[in-house]
Amino acid sequence: MTTPKTTFLVIRHGETHWNAHQRFQGHGDSPLTARGRSETQALGQRLKHIPFDRLISSDLGRAMETAHIIAGHNGHALEVDSALRERNYGELEGLTVPEIRSGHPEAYKRLLVGDPGYVIPGGESRQQHFDRNIAFFKAFVRENPGTTVALVVHGGVLDSLFRFVVDRPLDQPPCFTAVNSSLSIIGHGPFFFATRWMIQTWGDVGHLEKL
Question: Phi and psi (nearest 5°) for 5?
C-alpha cells in the first residue's frame, strides 16, 4: 500500500526585539518587532493561497504571536505543542555572544566546539533538543498520514529538522540559513521508489520582497 504524503509548512516566527539585538532567546521570550509583525502579515497573505489542514505552534510567545497573525488570514484554529520549542539556553538566555564570551567563558567554549551532549547550565543539550523536536515529526507522520500542516517554530527547530532529513551530524556546523518569517516545505511519502523524507522548499522569503 502506498504511504500517503504528509506535508509540513514550517515557518520561522517573525523578528523579535531580541533577534534584532542578537540575543539568545531559547525558552525566554521577546515580542515581535513592528518589522516582525509586517513580515508575518505578508506570510499570512501568502498562506491564504496554500491549502493546509491544521495550524500548530510552539507554545512560546513569539511563535504564538506569529501564529495568531497567520490564523487571522485563514481562520484556522491554533493548536500548540511544547515539543516545538526552541532549545533551552538556560543561564545564557537574553545574552549576546560578547556577553556570553566574557561572563560565561566555559559555556562559550563548549558551544564553540559544538558538543551535542553539552548541557547548558539550567538548559538542555543540542542532542536533547534534537530528540524532542524529531520525536514530534515522527509521531505526526505516524498518526496523521496525508495531512498538510503549518507549523510555527524556531531557528533551532529548523536546524533539527534539516539535520534529520539530510542526516547531518549534530557536531557539524549549520550549512543553511532560515531567516525570520521564512517558509520551508518538508514532505514525507513516496519519492524515488521509496517512502522517505524530502526537502521541497527551504527558507523561502519571496513573500517579503515587497517589504
Answer: -75, 130
